[in-house]
Amino acid sequence: MHLALWIVTGLLAAVFLFAGAAKLFVPREKLARAPGGGWAEDFGAGFVKALGAVEVLGAVGLVLPAVLGVAPVLVPLAAVGLMVVMAGAAVVTFRRREPLHALVNLAYLALAAFVAWGRFGPESFVG
Predict the structure, then answer these.
(1) pTM of the full predicted structure?
(2) How many structural domains compose the chain?
(3) Residue 39 resides in a domain
(4) What domain range includes position 79?
(5) 15 in a domain, yes or no?
(6) 50-96 pLDDT, tens per residue?
(7) What dihedral angle (degrees, nearest 10) is formed by the CA atoms of 30, 104, 110, 119?
(8) What DSSP designation does 114 have?
(9) pLDDT tens-place string over residues 5-57
(10) How far from the centroid of its chain's Cα atoms is residue 40's Cα?
(11) In a domain, 46, yes or no
(12) Distance in angstroms (rounded) separating the CA atoms of residues 115 and 3
């Protein structure tokens, strides 16, 4: 179980680091032209950058506290935060009538929920 949690955590961290960095460094107009990026047209550039920063911080929060052994309770908290982000993303893509993207967002939400459950419960770093 510990290994499965680390694998899922690493996958999520890589995905959110990449996605967040793209939102931070790629102009909103270019993001909107990318496949699945039409949602960016519905939000301002500041929101897209802030979302990118939240995703990057979430990715760091999934890994760094556990690796350094400093405040490892932040790992499941970061997972919960990313669950909230993905719930919002699923709502946006569902409202845009993009059911495939909504399912992808729900899959990431489920993976983050697995990490949160595992790190709050049976494979907690604390205790």
Answers:
(1) 0.93
(2) 1
(3) no
(4) 2-19+52-120
(5) yes
(6) 999 999 999 999 999 999 999 999 999 999 999 999 999 999 999 99
(7) -40
(8) H
(9) 999 999 999 999 999 999 999 999 999 999 889 999 999 999 999 999 999 99
(10) 16
(11) no
(12) 11
Q: What size, in residues, is the chain?
A: 127
Where helices occur in 26-98 by DSSP H, the ranges are: 28-33, 45-68, 74-95
What's the CA angle centered on 49, arms 46 and 52, to 5 degrees? 150
Nearest to 79 by CA among 101, 57, 100: 57
> Across the chain, how many H-helices and E-strands are there?
5, 0
Structure-token match 């049976």, residue found: 122
Tracing tokens 């052994």 back to the chain, one arrives at 69
Instruction: Report how far Cα 43 is from the mean position of its chain's Cα atoms.
Output: 18
8 Å CB contact between 92 and 76: no
| Dist. CA 58–CA 81, nearest whole Å | 7
* CA–CA distance, 103 with 89 (Å, rounded to integer): 10
58 inside domain: yes
**CA neighbor of 58 nearest in space, from 26, 28, 18, 88:** 18
Tokens of 122: 């049976």
